Amino acid sequence: MTVCRRVIPFYKSNIQRDLKTGKNVLVVASHNSLRAIIKKIENLSGDEIANVEIPFGGIVVYEIGRDMKVSYKKELS
What we know:
Blueprint: H1 2-20, H2 31-41, H3 46-50, E1 59-64, E2 70-76
Antiparallel strand pairs: 1-2
Helix pairs in contact: 1-2
C-alpha cells in the first residue's frame, strides 16, 4: 500500500516520537492516511484493515503505552 509507505515514516518520526515522551497527540487526516496509521498501531493485516470502518468526522481515542501498544480504544459519537 503506497499510502503506508508515505504515512508510516511520518508516524514514526513525529507522532510516535511524541507519544514515547508522554505527550498527547491529535491526528486529523483523510481516511486513507488514518487507515494506514490504524493498521500500524493496531498491528492489523491488509485483510483486517480492509474491514475497519472509519466514521466520517468521527473521533477515536487511543491510549498508547510507551511500548507503543494500544492499551485502550474508544469510539466517540
